[in-house]
Each structure stands twice: as structure tokens, then as C-alpha cells.
Amino acid sequence: MDLLTASLHDLLAQASQLVRDAAAGRVLERATEHELALQVSAIGDLARLTEALLVDAVGEITRRSEHGCRDDFMTSHLGCRNVTELVENLTRVDPRTATRLQRAARAVRPEVSGTTGEVLDAAFPQVRSAMLDGVVGVDGILAICEPLQASSPRIAPSARRHAEEIVVAEARGKGPHGAPPASAGILRVHAQAWALALDADGAEPRERAALRARGLTLGTATPTGVPIRGTLLPEVAAQLQTIFDAHLAPKVTFDNPEAEAAYDDGSPLLTAEDTRTRAQKQHDVLAAALSVAASSGLLPTIGGHAPTLVVSVTAEDLESGRGYAHAQGCEQPVTVSLARHVACAGTIQRVTSRDDGRIIRIDVRDRVFNRYQRRAIALRDGGCVIPGCGVPASWCEIHHVTEHAGGGPTHTDNGVLLCWYHHRYLDRIGWQIRMNHGIPEVKAPGWWGTDHQWRPATTSPTRLHRTILKT
Question: CB count, 10 Å around CB of 423?
């Protein structure tokens, strides 16, 4: 006997009519701010009650799909591999949402004894009560239960129940401090605080588990790149995220009419268009960080020398720009442009050999800018000279404006700062660079406006200050 479907269809019809009426009458647009706030709050209450019913339903599906013979599972009867797939198909949610519903159900749905059929207490009965009252939805359930559940093996059940009671009171707006009902984010903070207070040694087991799970693996090279996979320790991930944030945070610009008139002809400052995705930008930041680390002199040496990327290419291919180069440790051939990039900021070792492979001459040409030149160029340029880039000098490479192979000297009048990305793909992005009496100038590519003139480029505070004072 179906005890629920008819009632659900009645509610669905009412809700459908309500949505259509609200859209047709533009009632949300016509509401005052106070009325709109009340309406959104009521919609949230309704959503949490719907989630409560959904959590219990998913919990029942899980119960019918976990014990006994697989052929007897509800998922098998309905042609699905697992509960997640079945919930996806029935509710049209993505796998993450389906998984979250199952986790919430495990925390708040009462167990049923497999022998007696007796209904047992839920793992978190206070949270379940709040769920049935519409106080917390899936987000709130997981925010409270997961931190306390993680520490439950190491704390007394009575202490966990007390913590649960306090945090649920915060959710209801009846906490010790009388604060309004807390959102899921605040509830997680409270639950984590209680978990840490009750489980003083909880960090050590988690750290031991993290140490065992840590790892980083480079996959097999493919024509499109080398896949990377693994798990970072939390502090390592935080350090890497900090590096990403430092380089990718939106640059703050000030509405300064004097700064806007920095060019002598009064034209606006150029800004480079960056079409990279955030994932691609993070890749390039990591590439720059590896270059900085390798050249820092702080890493262990290999054969008495700093870790060095070795790229080999024939003189003919390097001169023509066609053909292939080979990077040590990389199974796939690389482009000649990569060889040019590495050679621009590194040392060229020319090896002359006969056709049979015998080496008959080795010529080393050191064309690396020394630390004194680098400091001077950094003082002059401030950072990457491509307008709008913002990468600081310490993370930049020094580019030979006139290639060393073409007679360009390793001199401050021929070196400019470029970030890893703009140095690596300078020949593709359209920006041109030249030196004018020792001052770097850039010309915008074709996609930028119509005024394609050579203009000085710098983010050096000293030079910008002097330019502003001249205006």
C-alpha cells in the first residue's frame, strides 16, 4: 500500500503552481527588500524539509542495497551499479550530491536491526530531530556530524552527545550565547571546535594517516603532456595554494590620472589579454616555482651541479626553428621553441661529433646573467615587462632581446624580465620587445586596439615615480 505518493503529488502540484504564479506575476521583483528576505528564508525552510524527506528516502535505498545477496539489492533490481548511480538517475543530481545524501543518511537515519527488526537510535539523534524540524538540511547535517564522527573513536559517547546537543542548539538559535540560527558554515566551525577540544590527540592519528597517504607520481608521457596525480600533505597543499594565490590574485589598480598619463603622448597604459584558464595559470606558476628552486642553489646537487634541465637540439634545427629537440628525462620530443627558451636563460654547451657519434669538440658558452646584472635589471624593470602581467622580479627569467646566437650580448642593455609564461610563448602571444638605449619598450599585438606604437614598459616604483613627477 502506497502511503506517500498521493500526498507527494499533491505537494508537487501546489509547488508547481506556486512557481508558475511567482514567475508570471514577477512577485520576487515586486517585493521590498524586507519581503524578499522573508520569502527567501521561507523557501530555504521548504528546501530543508524536502531534503529531510530525501535523506530518509536515500537512507532506505541504501539499507535495501547493502546487505545480503547482490541480486537482491534494490540497485540490482533497477539496473544500477550502486546507490550513487540510482540516486543520480532518480533525482537528476550529480555524483557528489548523491554521495552527500548518502553520508547524511548514515549520520541521521535510525538503523534497523537485521535480526529483530527493531528500530535503533540514529548515530546523531539530536541532528535528526533538527532535520525533521527543518532546522538543518544536508549541508548542516554534514557540517555537524562529520567533524564529531571523525573523532568519535577517541572520545566518550556521552561527550560526543553533549557536543552534538550544543551545536544543534546553535543551529536552532538557542545556543549559550543566544545567537541567531547558525548557517552550515558556522555550524562546521562549532563542530570542529568541539571535536578538537574533546580529542586533544586527534591531530596525530590524522597526521600519521596523511603521511602514509602522501605521494606524487608523474604518469606516462602522452602527446598532450604528462599526467600528474597524488595526494599532498595539508601544509604542503597550503604552501602551494599560497604561491598560486600570490601570483593569481587580481591585481589592484588605482584610479590615478597621473599614473594613467605615464606615457609622454598621454595614451593609456597597455594591458595584456590573458586567455589562460586558472588551471593553466597554476601550471605556469608551478613551472616558475620549479625554475626558481632549481636555480636557488639550495637544492641537493646532481653530480656536483644544481638540478638542471638538459635540452639537446641540432645546430641546424635551432637556426631554422624547425624540427625537434629532446629534453633529458622526457620520452616525447619537444619543440625547438622550448630549446630556445631554455637556452635563452641558460648555458649553451656545443658538442661537435662525427657522423658515427664520436665527440671531437666541446665548446661551453656561459651566457647566464650574473646576480649583479639581475639585480640591476630587476631595479629597472620591476617585474615582467609585458603590460598587466604583475609577476614580480624574483619569479622572472631574463630574456635576451637579441638572441645570443644572433650576436646579442649578455648585457643589461639586452636583457629584460619576463615571467615563465611570457618568456616561453613570446613568439606566439604577439607582444614585441625591443631595447631603446638600454630601456625596454613593448609594442602591442594586433588584437589590442589600433594604436600599435613602441612604448616603454616597467613596473619599477622608482621609474614610475620619476615619470609621474615629469607630467
Answer: 22
CA separation (Å) from 53 to 131, 194, 269? 9, 28, 58
Closest listed residue to residue 415, CA positions, set 461, 384, 369, 348: 369
Query: Can you give the pTM of this predicted structure?
Result: 0.54
Q: Which long-range contacts (CB under 8 A, 24 or more apart) does 230-238 make?
A: 234/210
Q: Please name which of 457, 419, 384 lies closest in space to residue 281, comparing C-alpha atoms.
A: 419
Return the axis-axis angle of helices 95-108 and 138-151, rounded to nearest 10°.
Answer: 60
Burial class (CB in 10 A: 0-12, 13-18, 19+), 206: middle
Residue 458 contacts residue 385 (beta carbons within 8 Å):
yes
Nearest to 423 by CA among 343, 362, 315: 343
Distance CA 55, CA 98 (A): 10
Mean pLDDT by 10 residues, the chain (471 residues): 90 95 94 94 96 96 88 92 94 94 95 75 94 96 93 84 94 87 92 82 66 85 84 80 73 38 49 74 83 66 53 66 64 65 60 62 63 87 83 84 79 89 82 90 74 76 67 58
383 burial class (0-12, 13-18, 19+ CB within 10 angstroms)? buried
Nearest to 433 by CA among 405, 460, 462, 403: 403
Backbone φ, ψ for residue 358 (5° rounding): -70, 130
b/e code 246-266 from CB counts within 10 Å (16+ = b): ebeeeeeeeeeeeeebbeeee
Q: What is the DSSP string of 226-288?
A: --EEEE--HHHHHHHHHHHHHHHSPPP----HHHHT-STT-PPPP-------HHHHHHHHHHH
Q: Which residues contact 448 (CB under 8 A, 6 or more apart)?
A: 270, 273
pLDDT single digits (tens) 291-319: 777 666 666 655 455 445 566 666 666 66
Distance in angstroms (rounded) separating the CA atoms of residues 457 and 408: 20
- Residues 82 and 73: beta-carbon distance below 8 Å: no
What is residue 326's DSSP assignment?
A: E
CA-wise closest residue to 397 among 288, 274, 300: 288
**What is d(CA 470, CA 15) in angstroms, rounded to the nearest whole number?**
68
3-state secondary structure of 441: strand
What confidence tens digit (pLDDT) does each residue in 48-90 have?
A: 999 999 999 999 999 999 878 888 999 999 999 999 999 999 9
Buried b / exposed e over 341-366, threshold 16 CB at 10 Å, is: bbbbbbebeeeeeeeeeeeeeeeeee
